[in-house]
Specification:
Length: about 475
């Protein structure tokens, strides 16, 4: 399902009408539900050579007390699949390596984290090694344990850090985090690559049914001299109508220069947390990592964390091999913006809505879908909105929801807004029958167009928490 979206003057193709947000939704007339495109893989292992399988089981059983050296997937190394059956990175989870800054300082010790996630796992293991990018068989720096969950193994000059028996945390579900220290080489040794493999195990005491993941992270020295990201507070704008500012749970775009090395899109997957590091870039809002859906040298699209406080907060862009850049940006309780398409003839937009409950699923049945808008500027639109018709308006920046404002993962059910917005059709006011967040940062407002609404173009606005959406968004009424 693909719906064209115009965002700040740029046309992009996405699976839903939020820039670079590849969620999959199905809005039914009776309510909401989400179809999950996540896949699962069943591994069938022929046991014709029973003795061989028994040998593998016995030799690998001890891995609950630490992985054997040389199984990180680094150049020349194997992975956990030598013992554990399965295909690398085929499960619904993932493995991440987190470094606390954009680059390392020679001789400095940094606290690192390895995060292993899998919704089906209940026991956990990993192994990580640090190598020079210029010489992958050469150790880079020194690894050290900081608690009872990890231990360091050595073989000659090489070094690995892995889990202990206690670190497997049997019975823990969802995800685990391993923390440890890494001391950088005493001088600038060039880029360092951390290689890791993780075993999200089912805890059945055998080598079957586990999911193996691998990943790597490249970190350059701070003295590497990479171009520093450049942006201003006024270049942080809402992702639909480009008005400056931020709000908790709002999608915003940062315009600037040297923001990333290349274009990178996220790949969200149900059952795991969303990406906060993309293309070697992280963005921290008030010291909290923001979810990133797109990065490029001149633009970053991010989701403001749901717990961000109001007022001036620091926004820090960290890019591999470059010094971080910090700018203070004002956060409001809301920064409403309606999904719309720019009018090429002037400085205004036309809202793109749907009939209540139709969503975008019907686009699968009709090449033009069931978007209601201005067909003259939006080739997806069938027609304008009729007076008295109940419609769904899609928006961002409507503020916090009831309970937790979820911005770090996909969720199945819509979450009502804490404060109901007011909808204005020109001079006429309407109260929504429903207003909810239906995906991280994406809201749906269901409202009935006034019966007395005259045909033509009418300004459409949303007001919540004292903030009003852009006045130059219009709705075509027929």
């Amino acid at each position: 399902m693909t719906v064209g979206l115009y965002l700040g003057g740029n046309a992009v193709e996405v699976e839903t009408f939020l820039q670079e947000v590849r969620f999959v939704y199905l809005y039914k007339y009776s309510g909401f539900s989400k179809t999950d495109r996540g896949t699962s893989t069943m591994i069938h292992l022929p046991l014709g050579k029973g003795l061989v399988f028994l040998f593998l089981s016995l030799t690998c059983w001890a891995n609950s007390s630490g992985a054997p050296e040389g199984h990180t997937g680094a150049p020349g190394e194997q992975t956990c699949t030598v013992c554990h059956t399965g295909t690398v990175n085929s499960g619904r989870g993932r493995l991440r390596i987190e470094f606390p800054s954009a680059g390392y300082t020679p001789g400095q010790t940094s606290r690192m984290r390895v995060i292993l996630e899998d919704p089906a796992a209940s026991r956990w293991g990993f192994e990580l090694t640090a190598r020079l990018e210029s010489a992958p068989q050469t150790r880079a720096g020194t690894l050290a344990s900081v608690d009872g969950n990890t231990m360091v193994n050595t073989a000659g000059a090489m070094q690995w850090i892995t889990h202990t028996a206690a670190g497997t945390r049997r019975g823990t579900t969802g995800s685990v985090t391993f923390e440890f220290n890494w001391t950088a080489p005493a001088t600038d040794a060039g880029a360092v690559v951390f290689y890791a493999a993780g075993n999200a195990a089912n805890g059945n005491g055998t080598v079957t049914g586990d999911n193996i993941y691998t990943t790597s992270l490249r970190v350059a020295a701070e003295s590497g001299g990479g171009a520093r990201p450049t942006f201003t507070a006024s270049s942080v704008v809402d992702a639909f109508t480009a008005r400056p500012g931020m709000a908790p749970g709002a999608w915003v775009t940062i315009q600037g220069s040297e923001l990333a090395g290349s274009e990178t899109h996220w790949t969200p997957v149900g059952g795991r947390t969303l990406d906060t590091r993309l293309g070697g870039v992280t963005v921290k809002v008030n010291d909290a990592p923001a979810v990133l859906s797109f990065v490029s040298p001149t633009r970053i699209t991010m989701l403001v964390p749901g717990n961000t406080p109001e007022g001036e907060v620091p926004v820090v862009i960290e890019r591999e091999g470059a010094a971080p850049s910090t700018v203070n940006v004002r956060v409001s309780a809301a920064l409403p913006a309606i999904h719309c398409v720019p009018d090429p003839s002037g400085n205004r937009f036309f809202a793109s809505v749907t009939s209540a409950g139709a969503g975008t699923s019907l686009a699968l049945l009709n090449p033009r879908g069931w978007i209601l808008g201005n067909p003259a500027v939006d080739n997806r639109a069938l027609r304008g909105v009729r007076a008295g018709e109940e419609i769904d308006i899609y928006a961002i920046g409507l503020g916090k929801t009831e309970g937790e404002t979820t911005t770090d993962r996909l969720f199945a059910n819509p979450v009502p807004l804490a404060t109901l917005p007011t909808v204005r059709f020109g001079e006429l006011t309407a109260t929504p029958s429903l207003a909810a967040m239906i995906a991280p940062g994406l809201y749906l407002v269901r409202v009935k167009a006034p019966e007395s609404l005259a045909a033509g173009e009418v300004a459409l606005t949303l007001e919540v928490h004292g903030m009003t959406s852009a006045p130059n968004v219009f709705l075509l009424v027929q």
